[in-house]
Amino acid sequence: MTDYQEIGLKSGIEIHQHLATHKLFCPCPSELRQNKPDFTVKRELRPLAGELGEIDPAAIFERKQRKYYIYEAYDDTTCLVELDEEPPHLINPEALHIALLIAKMLHCKFPDIVQVMRKTVVNGSNTSGFQRTALIGYGGFIETSFGKVGIQNIYLEEDAGRRTAETPESVTFRLDRLGIAEVEIATAPDCKTPEQVKELAEKLGMLLRSTGKVRRGIGTIRQDVNVSITGHPRVELKGVQELPHMPKIVDIEIERQQDVIKKGEKIEPQVRNVKEDLTSKFLRPMAGAARMYPETDLPLIFLDSNYISNIKLPESVESVKGKLQELGLSPDLVNQLASSAELPMFLAFTKKYPKLNANLVATTMLVTPKEVKRKLQLQEFELHEDIMDKVISALDEGTIVKESVSAIMEELAKSKQKDVDSIISKYKLMSDAELKKEIAKLQKEFKGPPDKLIGVAIGKFRGKANPQKIIELLKK
Amino acid sequence: MAAKFSVNDKVLVETKGSKYEGIVMPTLEGQEDVLIIKLASGYNLGIKLTKEVSVKHVGKAEKGKQPSIKPPFRKNLPSISIITTGGTITSKVDYSTGGVSPLIKPEEVFLATPELLDIVNIKKIVQPFAIWSEDMTSAEWQVIAKEVAKELNDPEVSGVMVTHGTDFLHYTASALSFILKGLNKPVAIVGGQRSSDRGSFDGGMNLICAAHYLKSNIAEVAVVMHGSTQDNFCYAIRGTNVRKMHTSRRDAFRPINELPLAKILPDGRIERMNKILNLRSDKGKVEADVKFEPKIALIKYFPGADPAILEYFMEKKYKGLIIEAAGLGQVSTNEKQKTVWTPTLKKLIKAGVFVGFTPQTIYGRIDPFVYSAGRILNEAGVCYLGNMLSETAYTKLGWVLAHSKNLEETKKLMLTNMAGELIEQILPKAFSD
Ligand SMILES: [Zn+2]
């Protein structure tokens, strides 16, 4: 076993998390589109001298690689800001609020004045040639079971376009992701073991979700891991997909660094991409400070200390648990929900549908989707909030029974959450008159022993009628 | 607090238990109580300079080296001259004002567009001044025109490029069209909508396409800028029929009432699109006939506009007015309305002031014979300028007034086509997206 202390392991992470609000510098929705883009725009980018007069090595490296870029856009969710055809609008105040809230939860200090910066990015993922980013908090910490980990900086920034295709001459980016507001949390390299790195990532993820104000689903959170051992400068590992893999990835990188040191190769700080087998490959040199300069199209942001001290933190887990118990939830569901990102949605539903059994709401939200995911062997399955609302509303109105929920969700998973209304209506209960007619028919046709009739009827009308009602009707 | 420090100093700042080390960045005027420092990470952070803040000077930041550029000479390439006048295309972020400001050295334009040197030799770069285009007056047009003529008359020069701010670029384009007489080589006016300090600098392709234009046989003053939102081609648009039609898009400049002169691809292919072209010749000399009457104004007619505003121009002894009229060329002629314009217009014209109407709709031509208002105004002596763009009519009027003896002659010259500004045949394709 590696003695991590002996090799001087220093590791930290960077988390990028999308915020649940519209884009950071324009009013477009933060929505990743699946349908075909409405139009494309071809552009080129030029390498440039930064604020201090130097051309960044990362920028030159990127420029040598490519000739042009293609941007995919939509008529209704892409505006001139993403197309670099209009100056940025003033910063989205809701995004700023969420970022400050997160910084406060992480015990950060705040600058008096925030200046939005342009970080030169010449890989084409930003139509402007730079990413807008701002330092909004620093010098905080988070507790782990291995000890405190420092939070160096928290940035509020716009995400880049997402790569959808590549040829030797060009790269294609979709602009749906460009401009989505995200926080970047950079921790200090305080983790002394790979296991601590994993716990840190989990803790931060949980804290972010507990705000109820971050986006969920594929591509809405990204983790990068920094690793260095004595004698090797910092290496940034990008594209860490699954948290359980984190310790393995760190161990592999430690071995690689040990190997490089032993061979006496030239060692440079660098960015590497994690591959499927958890090894990594060189992506680009680490960017220097020369790539930052002020966003002159935006005014300075003066942070009011009163505003920050008035930001309300989410409730503590204990008090949340108490509330959930009062709603009559089973202890198991209380524990699951209290630290779940679904909590705000759950509370909203119980408020909206006060007569519906809270256990049923929680099961529908937490348990059934997991079962469907397992049964259909899906990578990921999460119902969109509005679709979940339709299912729960149908339960509340009594138009469907709880026995139908998993079948409905299976069909929704298969239809990629389309045709929601027609899927739900397939499981609509029969009206009393219909049911009466059907039961009379069944009684007439049934030839088996009479004591089996109840079971057959319940089976036959599963999901179409309330079992209680079937029994009543059969007794008559 | 307020220890002495200046921009580019390395400082250590202590405040409320926080310590920062960084380089002092400039702040905007009126924000003297704010200290902006650049941290090692490259991020800027601001500190309010209160009593609790202490700033210690710890050193000086190293200044980055600007690579020096001397354009090489290649025998097989034609030569051009460049007149730079300021504007976004030759500007970058100025950290002392926080805004975008003109490049210190015009040569810096090649840092952003080195490809230019594979297309043409740059014989000369002249920078008579560097200002934003909204600050320009007819005095600057005269300076630019003289420089352009001087360079065009150099037999080694194939054409001249003028780099310019975009806001009023079309005014300069039309002014040069009237001032430069005997034009026998191409003149390209080029701007940029994104500054050269960003990766998405659009001026790069504009400069490249303009260089190709200057090698062509089209001897016209043309604005050469993006033809679409993509970096795929530029249009060369006649200087008298071009207008900035968008505040920020790359393809803001559009031809009005006619097609572009040519479509120019960055690889050098040129596709002519317009039959009305003055072609290159090696005969004669270009003259900059710069006499210009600045006492002129451009006014927009609007609902309920009080004709009393016109009295001001009479009082101040203006020599001519261009009025953007409604629709086919109307202003109020209804005597029952308090805001009727006819009596005041008559008064002006009687006093010898030239009054010309242009279409407020931008596209199309005005016509005095369709409505009675038009007939009344025409009768009153208003000069209907057809399709002429207001901005073009304005620069033309300045030139014409300096070259005519009386109102009759002014009217005659204003209605004489000089640089393609009066279009007889407006093609349907000239108004479509
Ligand atoms: Zn937008």
Largest inter-chain contact set? A-B, 55 and 46 residues
Supply Rg of chain B: 26 Å
- Indicate the overall shape of chain B: globular
Report the structural category of chain A: alpha+beta
Structurally, the number of domains of chain A stands at 3
CATH class of the largest domain in chain B: Alpha Beta
Q: Give average pLDDT of chain B, whole number.
A: 91
Helical proportion of chain A, percent range: 25-40%
Q: Unreliable stretches of chain A, pLDDT < 50, 5 or more residues?
A: 50-54
Q: Could you tell me the strand content of chain B as a percent range?
A: 15-25%
Quick one: how many beta strands of chain B? Answer: 23
* Helical/strand content category of chain B: alpha/beta
CATH level-4 homologous superfamily of the largest domain in chain B? L-asparaginase, N-terminal domain
Q: Report the average pLDDT across residues of chain A.
A: 89
Helix content of chain B: 10-25%
Helix and strand topology:
The complex is a heterodimer of chains A (476) and B (433).
Chain A: H1 4-7, E1 10-18, E2 39-43, H2 57-65, E3 68-73, H3 93-105, E4 113-114, E5 117-120, E6 130-144, E7 147-158, E8 162-166, E9 170-174, E10 181-187, H4 194-210, E11 221-228, E12 235-240, H5 246-263, E13 270-274, E14 280-285, E15 292-294, E16 301-302, H6 305-309, H7 317-326, H8 331-338, H9 343-352, H10 358-376, H11 385-397, H12 405-414, H13 420-426, H14 432-445, H15 453-460, H16 467-475
Helix pairs in contact in A: 4-5, 7-8, 10-12, 15-16
Chain B: E1 9-15, E2 18-25, E3 34-38, E4 44-48, E5 54-60, E6 79-84, E7 91-93, E8 100-102, H1 109-112, E9 121-126, H2 138-152, E10 157-163, H3 169-179, E11 180-181, E12 187-190, H4 203-214, E13 221-226, E14 234-238, E15 242-244, E16 253-255, E17 262-264, E18 270-272, E19 287-288, E20 296-300, H5 308-315, E21 320-325, H6 342-350, E22 354-359, H7 372-379, E23 383-384, H8 390-401, H9 407-414
Parallel strand pairs in B: 6-9, 6-10, 10-12, 12-13, 20-21, 21-22, 22-23
Antiparallel strand pairs in B: 1-2, 1-5, 2-3, 3-4, 7-8, 11-19, 13-14, 14-17, 15-16, 17-18
The complex binds zinc ion.
Zinc ion binds next to loops of chain A.
